[in-house]
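Predict the assembly for these two chains.
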Amino acid sequence: MVKINGVEGDFAGISVGEYLEKNGYVISRVAVERNGEIVPKAKYDSTALADGDVLEVVSFVGGG
Amino acid sequence: MEENFDFYRGAPHDAQKNEKGENFKNSEAFGARVPSITKEEMFSALASCHGKELQEKFSRARVAVCGLGGLGSNIALTLARAGIGRLRLIDFDTVALTNLNRQQYAACQIGMYKADALRQNLAAAAPYVECEAYRERITAENARELLCGCDIICEAFDGAEDKAMLVNFALENFPEKYITSSSGMAGMKPANTIVTRRVTKRFYLCGDGESDVDITGRIFPSRVALCAAHQAHAVLEIIAENF
């Protein structure tokens, strides 16, 4: 199981890029941390999620 | 009356009375008494509020504020008042009338570069803060150079893409620096929905996470200031815990 933003799901094997796309995230507005480390944007498609991973997806909104 | 009106351009005259009901002088608003305060007196006053050991840490810290709108101008003013040693203020834009509801500028500063105007305002509030004003737009191309020498970065942009760019850039390229950021402070939701979350060891995120100005269409001074205070406080916490 992979925990994403606090919720566990069966996402092992898919890439970070695939997960973001399937869940409607706008890539240019997100920052992704995997097990406490930033996932560089250039590595979204080559980073596969594995059992036990903890993912945080921060999706920014406008205003300031 | 005439000189008051010049300073507070467009403000009604009866709003310009001091506590005793006397007309407010320009010199009382900005700076006239500042030179009589020595650096030692200022430090001592700050140390009496924050503790000497912590004040010494604040004095040594170097913080970059990226974007000087509702978030950035409030963050910078709070950090200057706290006695942060060096502040780098970065924004390409100028002060506009629609900024005055939530940004720390005076009506007479409309048209000035925000970096220059804010530097003036910080100097009036905190005369010994070392302040650098950069009239530049931060991009992935110049961020490394613009943020060089800073310990902590405050992301205080308006646009979601710009926020994501800076946070990703900082976390990917500056493993030794800390970053605070804000997302979600538009609209009229309750004040208590604004929170600070430590996403990773070096990344603090403030806001309600969802109130997008492009969707709510409204942005209020109170919630923006709350969010800015969360971000400024995260900076002070980082310094207190790690410096």
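The beta strands of chain B are 62-66, 86-90, 130-134, 152-155, 178-182, 195-200, 203-207. Chain B has a mean pLDDT of 89.
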